[in-house]
Amino acid sequence: MRFGIYIGSRAGATCADPADPLRIGPLIDDLSGGQPFVIREYVRWCGGNTALEQQIGASGDLDHLTMPDDWYVTGGRELDLVLSYLPPVADLDGWLAFIDRALDRYGHLVRYLQVTLEPNFPIPHIDGSSPGVLAALTEGLPHARTRVSEGVQVGFSLAEPAEWLGGDDDFWRSLNAIPYADFAAHVDYVGLGLYPDGFSPHDDVHGATLHALGHLRHRLAEAHFPTGLPIHIAEAGSPSGAHRTPTGQVSSLTALIDASAAAGAAQFELFALSDADSAADSPLGTFGLCTGGYLPKPAYETYRSQIKAAPHQQRSRP
């Protein structure tokens, strides 16, 4: 199982301080230990909604990522770039044009391209709340496939089972109706956003992780995806504050990784390197392995040790 992490300093609209590239670089080098390591970044299309762009810090997404361009393709690093769809009204043509612009800007850096963020999850600042999201996924991903370089893997991500929101049956019914050749044939992997105890207490993170992965595989089989399609844990995390503690964050992270590996996940990307706001009462503020000032928490060493203990994998790029 390959490891990675989101390196930005933002969780939705929560962001107390800007990311600090000078602090990020050494921490990532230390975490990865010279092994192949995935770096997750987000580029968001708000469809002209400038108020939302400002609220979530998206206005400069096509100008630069967190680190300089060359950093993403050196030292064994591999960029996992998320293209997020957040317009106020459905606009497929505008979205496809945005995909083209994003790939014109970052296509030479990308190793994994994720088209839409959790389209089955209808909450603010997540793509599932956006009008026309199913078309954005099912038309946007095949379109992106025609634009990426050879060797780039193209996929999408889904939220873990959202029973507390009434489930996501409508999303799956719509996806199941699309012929294999029109959508599933273009998909290299499917990602899963996984936060079993991220926003409320949970007594069995390991069991919840196994359940979420099993549920996803069952749903994918119904939607014409092949049995062996790789599953990536595209996001996973647990806060160190709110209803958790730094010690609880360690135990949750260990359970997330162990269960993901046991369930056959191909990749595990943690959210996040640093806190969005270490002083926040909300769980969104404290998902980091480090504080907002880049001081490592106990979970930092836990993740570093897990990465170091993983079997060495050949790099897919020089």
From TrEMBL:
SUPFAM superfamilies for this protein: (Trans)glycosidases (SSF51445)
UniProt cross-references to InterPro entries, sorted A to Z: GH (IPR017853)
Record-given protein name: Glycosyl hydrolase catalytic core
